[in-house]
Amino acid sequence: MKEEEGLVIGVSPQAGTATVKVGRHAECSACGACAGSRQLTVEAVNGPGAVVGQRVKFAMQEQQMLKGAFVVFLLPLILAGAGGILGWQLGYGGEAEDLYPLGLGFLGFCLGSGLVKWYDRRAAARQKEQPVITEIIS
């Protein structure tokens, strides 16, 4: 488990979660995929009962971060490449041999993007893999 620190900016008592504002760290410096210029937010299980304005420590599973990065960044590209190769094989020597790889590559990318959305919904529904607030600092 990886521990981070952040500032609670919102609390949802019904869901038992808190929105935590986290500063970017070394792993995020080259990515740029997160919204916000220097900050990002995380929805964490609020076990200790933190309130808005408190600094907290929260833990998250590193393997989930790696799996999420693979799904978001690589899966659409792999499926686009596979679609392009399949299209090249199917359209080789035909009149529209350039359209097959382009079309199937695009379909592969769309399929990969759909799988990213499906994975995101599924991951959001699983509470046990959510970050968990472990300690209230101040």
Describe this structure in words.
The two termini are 22 Å apart. The protein has a 5-stranded antiparallel sheet with strand order 3-2-1-4-5. The protein has helices spanning 62-91, 99-125; strands at residues 2-12, 17-23, 39-45, 55-60, 132-136. α1 (62-91) packs antiparallel against α2. The mean pLDDT is 82. The protein is built from 2 helices and 5 strands.
**Percentage beta strand:** 25-35%
Helix and strand composition category: alpha+beta
| CATH structural class of the largest domain | Mainly Beta
CATH architecture of the largest domain: Beta Barrel
What name does the CATH topology of the largest domain carry? OB fold (Dihydrolipoamide Acetyltransferase, E2P)
The total beta strand count reads 5
What is the count of distinct domains? 2
Strand/helix succession: EEEEHHE
How much helical structure, as a percent, in the residues? 40-55%
**Uncertain regions spanning at least 5 consecutive residues:** none
Note the main sheet. 5 strands, antiparallel
* CATH homologous superfamily designation of the largest domain: Nucleic acid-binding proteins
How confident is the prediction overall: mean pLDDT? 82
- The shape, in one word, is rod-shaped
List keywords for this structure.
alpha+beta, rod-shaped, 2 domains, 5-stranded antiparallel β-sheet, single chain, OB fold (Dihydrolipoamide Acetyltransferase, E2P), 138 residues
Secondary-structure map:
Blueprint: E1 2-12, E2 17-23, E3 39-45, E4 55-60, H1 62-91, H2 99-125, E5 132-136
Antiparallel strand pairs: 1-2, 1-4, 2-3, 4-5
Helix pairs in contact: 1-2
